[in-house]
Amino acid sequence: MLRTLFVAVFLSLYILIVGPPLLLYTLITKDPDPIYWRGVKGVMFFVRAVGVRVRVKGTERIPPGVCLFVANHTSSVDAPAIVGAIPRRVAILLKESLMNWPIVGAAFRSAHFVPVNRAARDSAIASVEKATEAMRAGQSFLVYPEGTRSPDGRLQEFKKGAVVMAIKAGVPIVPMVCSGAHRIMEKRSLVIHPGEIVVEFLEPIDASKYSFEERDALNKVAHDAMAEALPEDQKPTEFSGAAAETGARNVS
After folding, report:
1. Is residue 165 a part of any domain in this protein?
2. Domain annotation covers residue 4
């Protein structure tokens, strides 16, 4: 609990000191890079300070150009680990309520993050369309296709929004698997345990080879590729192996 208190207090102070000047800079210059990278590096500093190590694998698999990164979601601490592992600025499709946080919400908007209200279907579709247009304009995105945190660390079923974005924008999907974060901080727990989080980038999937009508097939390819790469205690309970077509349409 002391680790959580340390992060809460000092991260809040960091946001109060660094946030307003960077927001002003972004407003004047329209350049979101400084506020994005200061935010990522600041959060990662405090994560490491409480004994959480992040090991990153497979960055050489990331293709050039615009990508849609998709990752599993098991814990509050996997978000900074995943974002910190991506070696380029990304926008994120994230829960709408996070935009209401003081300073942080403004920073998210400045970095072109797109809020989504999962409870309202029409609003969620509009958010997906907005993110798709941003990808067409050159902005890479990160999406958590499960839609919420896993209750037990195991990979859940995927919503279809992520693959629809990739198909419509014609960009590759880069699956990411995050393991160990559910043991660092369990869902609905405020206790942070020291330990290691491993983030691995998998082979990209060429979404341009799929039509809108094939979105279910693409969703399964992405899901099964990630399920295969996760450790046994994070695989879906019903998972019996990688999808046969996973390698068929991967980007070479």
Report:
1. yes
2. no
* Domain that includes residue 91, residue range: 54-234
* Per-residue pLDDT tens over the stretch 21-60: 999 999 999 999 999 999 999 999 999 999 999 999 999 9
Angle at 51 between CA 48 and CA 53, to 5 degrees: 60
Q: Residue 48: CB partners within 8 Å, gap ≥ 6?
A: 54
Structure pTM? 0.89
In a domain, 49, yes or no: no
What is the total count of domains within the chain? 1
